DNA sequence: CTGAAAGCGCTTACAG
DNA sequence: CTGAAAGCGCTTACAG
């Protein structure tokens, strides 16, 4: 049998309510009584049962996090940011991977709901109607991270993707590139698709250059390599490449080098994210630096505000991005 | 107010106990009654409160995971393996980062204990006495992952690090290398230190070659680069490098290239882990492939066995490693 | 400042 | 096959 609040109360010669009060600091307790309680706790090695507390107080001090895949570096770093802030506010996290599958996402929301999480952080692709409905049913605060709700119904933390893509493209233009390919994610993707294509197009249009958008099935290196090889094989050799992830950017560099093209001499490459990978290639990758860790941290901080009913000014956060220039451009 | 089991019971015209039984399948329920209950659940959109269930049943269906840092690719992939198996067995995970700090590790164990996790998966460095004592107090199953207990008191999942280091070194020797440097972790580290140094030494000794071990403060790229530059600057140019992580391996390649040495022409490099990074460099990195995902999966699978008191044969798992040959050797 | 008691939403012997 | 009731270990009005 483990030690309960009852044992502590008995040992200290007070009521359970009093023990609870010193534990939670929910009311003033005479200094002397407090000391007796603390001593008893110490002596017995008592640890409060958070599950019982959760049932009684209807607050579990845990936040659910749903992401497509923790093993992706971008996601892992974001989760780290979330976790650090959660710890700071004495919350723990329940983490689940959805692989971006809508049914799984809904499933996970349900399970977390059953676990009575105090809030949920969500990273995904499209916000389907079913998803929104499930969030609504769960009746707990939700914050999106690196995920946009085109209709702004749910608070979210992102960068300005359109502007970032514009900046990246513009940078290549200023370096003298005229035939710039965009290695894009799925066109209908609300983060790595549409808005970045828009920013890219805008920059080209200003110069009257032709757009050349290629969708990659995923943002992973292997797919990037494949896609790029296809482009180079068709002899549509660009002089600039904007890739929507560092992995695609590295793939771009390698595909060019493998084809005998010099980087940044003949082809310049710029990417998105500034994960650690960007500096682990030669030439090192110029990239739009996203504050990935901060995005997770801000999302979690915002969550704590929502949970504690603190006043909030903003609703959709757009964190600043930056251009980290290295030797691939 | 949310819907409780009481509401369902009333709607179905049965007792709470019966609802509980159909929910958990803990006893046979007449087909007709069952249907009534299921209909009521459906109609009301009832979801059982897992916290209340946890309090009553003393099982929370959650596993605590403590790792140094999820944002490290090795760790992230391992965690993914854990999570997938947990999902398979209907468990959820609480994830925390310790940054390898002993006090923090002990703290986290305490918090997870309060949360009544059914078991804990632990990845860390040294198993201090305090740590072991805390595990013991918590009275729940613990499994180590990519972490060794030199005295075998706690079940664990690893590869045979000594053998792996031997294999890597031997491979370079067979490729003709005579001056092989080991880019090692801290010498007293029970995973990336001692055992790998031992395997390395053994392989060299067989040939009568001289050992040259250099400790890196961390296993990260930046430190590897720094360390390697020091070695090359001292004009102690090796013809082979064994690095204990892929990041160090990539650093080795780049340091050599930057110093005008050809890889694998003048210097051959081999590393550990086979994370995705290994194939994202040129030349691609030859590396000891660790079944990272599987290590996490096996550890979690073993945990489910411990929790359910299934008979277990083994205690310390040594998963097979492999040598993935690429172009850096 | 402190205590007695109800209640959080389940599970689980115990009866029948 | 099903129900009534105790109990899991806390918190929280309510009294005093």
TrEMBL record, chains A, B:
One of its GO terms (molecular function) is transcription cis-regulatory region binding. Residues 3-47 form the HTH cro/C1-type domain. SUPFAM superfamilies: lambda repressor-like DNA-binding domains (SSF47413), Periplasmic binding protein-like I (SSF53822). It comes from the Bacteria. Transmembrane segments: none annotated. InterPro entries: Cro/C1-type_HTH (IPR001387), HTH_LacI (IPR000843), LacI/GalR-like_sensor (IPR046335), Lambda_DNA-bd_dom_sf (IPR010982), Peripla_BP_I (IPR028082). PROSITE patterns: HTH_CROC1, HTH_LACI_1, HTH_LACI_2. Gene3D superfamilies: 3.40.50.2300, lambda repressor-like DNA-binding domains. Pfam families: LacI, Peripla_BP_3. Residues 3-57 form the HTH lacI-type domain. Keywords: DNA-binding, Transcription, Transcription regulation. PANTHER family: ARABINOSE METABOLISM TRANSCRIPTIONAL REPRESSOR, LACI-RELATED TRANSCRIPTIONAL REPRESSOR. This is Catabolite control protein A. The lineage of its organism: Bacteria, Bacillati, Bacillota, Bacilli, Bacillales.
